[in-house]
Amino acid sequence: MTDSAIEPMIELRNVKKVYDKKVVGLKKVNLTINKGEFVVVVGLSGAGKSTLLRSINRLIDVTEGDILIDGKSITKARGKKLRLLRRNIGMIFQNFNLVKRSSVLRNVLAGRVAYYPTWKTIFNLFTKEDKERAYEALKQVDLADKVYARADELSGGQQQRVAIARVLMQNPKVILADEPTASLDPQTSLKVMEDLKMLNEKHGMTVIANLHSVELARKFGQRVIGIRAGEIIYDGKMSATPESVFTKIYNGGEEDD
Ligand SMILES: Nc1ncnc2c1ncn2[C@@H]1O[C@H](COP(=O)(O)OP(=O)(O)OP(=O)(O)O)[C@@H](O)[C@H]1O
């Protein structure tokens, strides 16, 4: 992206999250993520990485502050407005979140539910065009041959790539990936990250990924955000980030777990 094309996609303004009136998840976070960025978030367990991602699509409500998605406040949105904003945000979870007893095709089509009235999705009335799109999405993650398989017949890495095809069907502006490779082996993790990179580069989606692996963070992130105890303690271009930053984020005086 050229500098002239820099536009904010996600803006957090003084965002604070306190759980049960006592546990601090995020402390007055101010952050802007621009359109088309691939951002990795790193930090110890309990630092607040999931809280950050879950606040952005309002899986959890923040205690204070405001979050804007492409200029619109998700914090204040209700009803239809909230549904439309959420349609612009895709999620990838550590545990894939597939309907395990359903077919791969059905799972990928689920990416379109926000575009249909509920009764149509209950009766599985997806258009022929969407079924073709689902097949195309599966092709892009190299799983076209699994279209009629049951989701739970697939390996963990394949299931995560079905989740990526589902996000492709949803066609959001933003993807939030919460530890997408935590339950996968190193080689499969690499493939999943390559697919996320494809969504970013080929489809222009803005990606924020929480990662435990510094190696994967280094390889795929253009920008790195370090979080400790609910605060952003580092934010910079990956290419300009020395190893010492990671050492500090992971060994900076916080107890692990
Ligand atoms: N639902 C909840 N209720 C109460 N406290 C919570 C809840 N979710 C998270 N917390 C607390 O908020 C803080 C931040 O947790 P969060 O899950 O965001 O961290 P994380 O960096 O994503 O960690 P991990 O890598 O282990 O998922 C922690 O102290 C955690 O115990």
UniProtKB/TrEMBL annotation:
One of its GO terms (cellular component) is membrane. GO terms for molecular function: ABC-type phosphonate transporter activity; ATP binding; ATP hydrolysis activity. Keywords: ATP-binding, Cell membrane, Membrane, Nucleotide-binding, Phosphonate transport, Translocase, Transport. SMART domains: AAA. It comes from the Bacteria. CDD domains: ABC_PhnC_transporter. The keyword Methyltransferase does not apply. Residues 10-254 form the ABC transporter domain. NCBIfam families: ABC_phnC (TIGR02315). This is Phosphonate ABC transporter ATP-binding component. It comes from Lactobacillus acetotolerans. The lineage of its organism: Bacteria, Bacillati, Bacillota, Bacilli, Lactobacillales. The gene is phnC.
